[in-house]
Amino acid sequence: MRHLCSICETPMERARGDYPFPESGLSGVVLRDIQLLKCPKCGAIDPIIPRFKHLFYFLARILLKKESILCGEEIHFLRLHLGMNAKEFADLVGVDKSTLSRWEHDRQRISPTNDRLIRLIVYSLMKQQPLNELKRLIHIEHPDDHTCAKFIVEERDGEYHAEIA
């Protein structure tokens, strides 16, 4: 199959090489020794990226393992990877949309606690936990109530069942 340059419509040539990948939304990603299409006339370069979705999933998993606080572009990448808009994600994290925006644009540093919360949310959703279940688990209806819960637990048919009394 012949590929034409999207800029000058010249037939492109195949090559291999490293490709900085700013299209990922992460400035530090370089794809090493991948197949490239190069235009001999205008110099345009297009990467051939197999399993594109898998690559983004892989990048998200690497970010979750990062040993330092997430930077703004990394938070933004993870949010977009989940397919969430800023309001949805901010609500899930429990912050105002403007706070999330300041984090994503590196105008405010994220706290270690919120960094951990974001990683846990992303990890949980990447493991395909239902969003409504996650929201239910982290939503606190009465934040000023610090009383301990009382449970009624019973065993039926080899399973435990409980309700908060």
Layout of secondary structure:
Layout: E1 13-20, E2 30-38, E3 45-47, H1 52-65, H2 72-81, H3 86-93, H4 97-104, H5 112-126, H6 131-138, E4 151-156, E5 159-164
Antiparallel strand pairs: 1-2, 2-3, 4-5
Helix pairs in contact: 1-2, 3-4
Structure report:
Helix 1 packs across helix 2. The strands form two sheets. Strands 1-2-3 form a three-stranded antiparallel beta sheet, with no helix packed on it. It is an alpha+beta fold. Helix content is 38%, strand content 19%.
Question: Features of this protein?
Answer:
single chain, 165 residues, alpha+beta, 3-stranded antiparallel beta sheet, two-stranded antiparallel sheet
* Molecular shape: elongated
Strand order of the largest sheet: 1-2-3
Task: Compute the CA-based radius of gyration.
Answer: 23 Å
Helix count?
Answer: 6
Mean pLDDT: 89
Summarize the structure.
With 165 residues, the chain is an alpha+beta fold.
